[in-house]
Specification:
The complex is a heterodimer of chains A (about 300) and B (about 325).
Chain A (H helix, E strand, L loop, with lengths): L6 H6 L4 H11 L1 H23 L37 H36 L2 H16 L2 H12 L3 H28 L2 H8 L4 H37 L11 H8 L7 H29 L1 H4 L2
Chain B lengths: L1 H28 L4 H6 L6 H11 L5 H13 L13 H36 L4 H14 L3 H15 L22 H8 L4 H36 L2 H8 L4 H39 L4 H11 L2 H29 L1 H5 L1
Chain lengths: ~300, ~325
């Protein structure tokens, strides 16, 4: 708390944007916990295969459907038990982190880049282009997202890459709407007019003058759609339309484990728990980001 | 008001055409020739191929095909299923009541619990109750519902044996199904135990499908209530000595409901997406399972038609919500 500006210091300079952000972000204890879990998740995603005790695809024929270590019949060789093919659950979960992480990163990058560009275009373009773009977005939004993604994957063929493309297409309209709305409200402000008067060209106006001021809600949306992407990719995997076995993707693992739910609770419980904890951490972080970045809610 | 309704209806038309265009495009961008797919393993002669091509109109210019498709859709002609050979339209409306029944139950479940939870949390802002409720809501909001369904099955169907795992009713009951709504039909059939069986089949799918809307409604109600509770008229009501139950329950809630209704309306799309997973897991014979099965069977006319009908259903609900919004909040109409 000592690093906040005292009244005397505020006269000299405002704290840097990053420090101010961190100050408000830290206020929200849930968000900080979310951030730590997310950091652990990212760490596993990067270094999973070197941390996992076993190879994620190695089948230990002698240890099929072994329960977790703390249950009768379990052993610490396989701390979370083994699946129907004798693969170590813990190793698969650790290695699986990178698929979900990858899905989140790729989907958000594609959807946000495309969405921001189209949204900027809609905000700056003449009325008829704007109307056309927004009607197209309305059409995409008319379909339930998972259904559209499912059908797109059916067209493209089931694989993790195609699932990511499909989810990105489905999530994109949200960015378009958000960017367009912020651009519209920014365009009316004086600083944009003065930049225009000073002779700023269209690209400069779009990307340097206006875009940075629209970023706050987009960053929050990015965090939230990161979790949506993970959930949807897992759902597609669960329906057999995402990552294909033997990939240790969490949703696919659940699909493979379905028939054993009444015999071996651990093969079903842990992959889902991994999805839940990850998504929850990201949502907690998203709430904190919103509180820290949204000026309307900030000082209430 | 009439102007508002008309302007909303006008935006419906281009979106409808766009949705039709997408579902039209679907069968044509698929890898492989749909006629070859329909022929299956056996293959077909060149004459038969040409005959089928003419029958489906694939030999004509693409814009003519689209025009035919659009006019067909408007007359309720969505083609026939490759598998059952029955019209897609008929299949959709035979299965729709099952999905509608499940969705309505899930919505009622979500509203009955979510609304009071949100109000209680807002009134007790910052206290233990608020934190506990909102943490639970965030967990619900982050829940992978396909996993949630499996967990509930393990506990309630597996260990406790309270609820069945799949279907809409036990196989020993058989009665005509005039409305397609199992709760109503089983009640009218007069067979003892039929209604109870239908209810027991509904419980788990309802909870699973209602979880995310429940969390969303609770969160939205809380924040809307908090906003309203800070208004001057609430302070006036308090100052003139109204009971806080009356203030919270009537004065505040009524105005807080506006954003909540929007959220409820927007959840319909989520419900239909959730129905895909829920119905697949519980073998619930509705639209969601029908779509997934058709995708796996490569029954393209069904996928195409189902996609269109579901999108139109979502659009109609959104339009209705928009109109309701205009009725409740006169400020919107003026824009």
């Amino acid at each position: 708390m000592t690093d906040i500006a005292t009244p005397a210091e505020t006269d000299v300079a405002r704290p840097s944007a990053l420090r101010e952000f961190w100050f408000y972000f830290r206020e929200n204890r849930g968000a900080v916990i979310g951030l730590w879990i997310f950091a652990a998740f990212a760490f596993l995603a990067l270094f999973g295969p070197w941390i996992a005790p076993h190879d994620a695809t190695a089948q230990f024929r002698g240890a099929i459907l072994q329960p977790p270590a703390w249950q009768d019949g379990g052993s610490w060789t396989y701390p979370l038990g083994t699946d129907p093919l004798g693969r170590d659950m813990l190793s698969r979960l650790i290695v699986g982190a990178r698929f979900s992480f990858f899905v989140g990163v790729v989907v958000v990058s594609i959807a946000a880049t495309g969405g921001i560009l189209i949204g900027l275009l809609a905000g700056f373009a003449p009325k008829w282009v704007d109307t056309l773009i927004m009607r197209i977005m309305d059409v995409i939004l008319a379909f339930p997202s998972l259904l559209l993604a499912l059908v797109l994957v059916a067209v493209l063929g089931p694989s993790l890459t195609n699932a990511m493309i499909a989810i990105a297409i489905v999530l994109q309209p949200h960015y378009v709407r958000l960017t367009r709305a912020s651009v519209m409200s920014e365009l009316r402000k004086d600083y944009v007019t003065s930049a225009r008067v000073a002779g700023a060209g269209l690209p400069r106006l779009m990307f340097i003058t206006v875009l940075p001021n629209c970023l706050a809600p987009i960053i929050v949306q990015a965090a939230l759609s990161f979790s949506t992407a993970i959930l949807d990719a897992a759902a597609l995997g669960f329906l057999g339309m995402g990552a294909q076995p033997p990939t240790p993707e969490w949703g696919t693992m659940l699909a493979e484990a379905r028939e054993f739910i009444l015999r071996a609770w651990w093969v079903v419980t842990f992959p889902g728990l991994a999805i839940l904890v990850t998504v929850l951490a990201i949502n907690l972080m998203g709430d904190g980001l919103r509180d820290a970045l949204d000026p309307k809610l900030k000082r209430s | 008001m009439l102007n508002y309704v008309l302007s909303r209806l006008l935006t419906f038309v281009p979106t409808f055409i766009g949705v039709t265009l997408i579902s039209f495009a679907f069968i044509r961008v698929l890898p492989g020739d749909p006629i070859v797919v329909m022929a299956g393993e056996r293959g077909m002669t060149a004459e038969r191929y040409a005959e089928l091509e003419a029958q489906f109109g694939f030999d004509r210019p693409i814009y003519v095909q689209f025009w035919d498709y659009l006019t067909g859709v408007l007359q309720g002609d969505l083609g026939n299923s490759f598998v059952t050979k029955r019209p897609v339209w008929d299949e959709f409306f035979a299965l729709f009541p099952a999905t509608l029944e499940l969705s309505l139950c899930a919505m009622v479940f979500a509203i009955l619990i979510g609304l009071p939870a949100g109000v209680i949390a807002a009134v007790n802002r910052g206290k233990f109750f608020d934190r506990a409720l909102m943490s639970t809501a965030l967990v619900g909001y982050s829940m992978p519902i396909f996993w949630w369904a499996l967990l509930l099955i393990i506990v309630f169907s597996g260990n406790l044996q309270w609820t069945p795992v799949s279907g809409r009713i036990d196989l020993l009951y058989y009665f005509p199904n005039p409305t397609g709504f199992m709760l109503y039909d089983s009640l009218v059939s007069g067979q003892s135990g039929a209604f109870a069986s239908a209810v027991r089949h509904l419980i788990l799918p309802t909870i699973v499908l209602g979880t995310i809307p429940l969390a969303v409604i609770a969160r939205q109600t809380r924040s809307a209530m908090l906003e309203v509770l800070g208004e001057d008229y609430i302070r006036t009501a308090r100052a003139k000595g109204l009971a806080s139950k009356r203030i919270n329950g009537i004065h505040a809630l009524r105005n807080a409901l506006i954003p909540v209704i929007t959220v409820i309306g927007l959840s319909v799309g989520t419900l239909l997406a959730g129905a895909i997973l829920t119905e697949t897991i519980f073998s619930w014979p509705g639209i969601g399972k029908w779509m997934v099965d058709s995708i796996f069977r490569r029954d393209y006319p069904v996928v195409q038609g189902g996609l269109l009908l579901i999108a139109v259903a979502v659009m109609i609900v959104n339009l209705t919500v928009d109109m309701l919004y205009g009725v409740i909040n006169p400020k919107i109409r003026k824009r």
